[in-house]
Structure formats: structure tokens, C-alpha cells
Design goal:
With 221 residues, the protein is an all-alpha fold. It contains eight helices and no strands.
């Protein structure tokens, strides 16, 4: 139960800070810019992994939880609870932003500025790369902290692809703002592409390097 609460709180904080940066940027005529928004997401993930990693692994992302379940690092029995907590946290954070600021910038909802096909491909690739970093960082025993590697990856991907797709890589992060703001036209893209990207990477890695399922809670990244 502690892990589920940690995922809810962590995803709430991620959406509140990251999408809040989008809202603030809109309210103050681009004061943060794409670089500032990317930094907000990356730094928030870094801090949240440090804070909640020892409790739940700090996935904060249904697609990452899916990849970790496939790779044997999250028991499947925990996956529904993780995903439910992450989605609920994102929705509550979006409701908080709506109460504070109103429906500004669609509460940071993700909408593609390119074709749907290109946006789908980008979100799939971004999520696949993120999953590869998560798996590598989680198995490393020394070197750069996993939290920093993952946070930096998210910041970099958001910096490069943010103007094109919003660089979601996270179904919960897109679901909350979309539902609360009513901007659900392309939501399917942000639900499906990240899951497919993480699924592919986790399946390939598991095939190349099989792992025994963990009986306990997932490792802290």
C-alpha cells in the first residue's frame, strides 16, 4: 500500500510541477520557454526518484511500469495498482491546476504540432529510449546516480521534441490534463505510443538477457 501511495503522490507532484510550468509559461508570455519547461520536468523527476524511489521505485509512468513488469522487475500483481495510482495522481494534479489558474494552456495537455504519424513515431522512440535508460540505470551498481540519468534523459527529450509532440512519454501525464481540460482529440496517441515503445525495449532486453521475476517490491531507481 505504501508503494501505491508513493506512486500517487509522485505522479501528482510530477504533473503539478511539469504541467504547472506550461501554465506559468503561458500566463507570463513565455517566461520559461521550452528549455525551462523541459528543465522543470527533468528536475522534478530527478528529485521524485530520490524521494520515492526507496518506497515504490518511483515509476511515475504507466508505460515505465509496463516495461518493468515485462522485464521482470515489477510483479504483475502490482501493475494495476501502480497504473491506477499514477493516473489518479495526474488527474488530481490537473484539477489542482484548474482550480488555481483556470483552463490556461489546456492545463499543459499534449497536442502534436506535426502529423499524427510523425507524432506517434516520435513518442514511441522517445519512450523506447527512456525505457532503455531506466533499465540500464536500474541495473548499474556504480557511476552516475540513476535518478540523475533518468531526469536528464527526460529533460533532453523534452527539450528536443517538446515543440513537436509535447514529449509526453507518459500516459498518465497526458491523461490528467486532457480529461480535465477536455482536450482528448489525440489522447489515444499519448496512451498507446509510450506503452508500445517501452514494451518493445523491455521485451527485447528480456529476450537477450532473461531475468528472474522479483518477489518483493521493484528496485529503487
Amino acid at each position: 500500500m505504501k508503494a501505491i501511495i508513493a506512486e500517487l503522490m509522485g505522479t501528482y507532484a510530477l504533473v503539478l510541477a511539469g504541467c504547472g510550468a506550461v501554465v506559468v509559461n503561458s500566463l507570463h508570455t513565455g517566461a520559461l520557454g521550452n528549455a525551462g519547461i523541459a528543465a522543470a520536468f527533468g528536475l522534478t523527476v530527478w528529485l521524485l526518484i530520490e524521494l520515492f524511489g526507496p518506497i515504490s521505485g518511483a515509476h511515475l509512468n504507466p508505460a515505465v511500469s509496463l516495461g518493468l513488469a515485462i522485464s521482470g522487475q515489477l510483479p504483475w500483481r502490482l501493475w494495476p495498482g501502480y497504473v491506477s495510482a499514477q493516473c489518479l495522481g495526474a488527474i488530481l494534479a490537473s484539477l489542482t491546476l484548474w482550480c488555481w489558474f483556470g483552463d490556461v494552456a489546456n492545463l499543459g495537455s499534449t497536442q502534436p504540432s506535426a502529423s499524427v504519424g510523425l507524432a506517434f513515431a516520435l513518442e514511441l522512440l522517445l519512450s523506447a529510449f527512456l525505457m532503455a535508460v531506466v533499465l540500464r540505470a536500474g541495473s548499474a551498481s556504480r557511476g552516475t546516480p540513476a535518478s540523475l540519468l533518468i531526469g536528464a534523459t527526460i529533460a533532453l527529450e523534452a527539450l528536443v521534441a517538446g515543440p513537436v509532440t509535447g514529449a509526453s512519454m507518459n500516459p498518465a501525464r497526458s491523461l490528467g490534463p486532457a480529461l480535465v481540460s477536455g482536450q482528448c482529440q489525440q489522447l489515444w496517441l499519448y496512451l498507446l505510443a509510450p506503452c508500445l515503445g517501452t514494451l518493445l525495449v523491455a521485451a527485447v532486453r528480456t529476450h537477450l538477457q532473461p531475468q528472474e521475476p522479483l518477489a518483493a517490491k521493484p528496485p529503487a531507481f
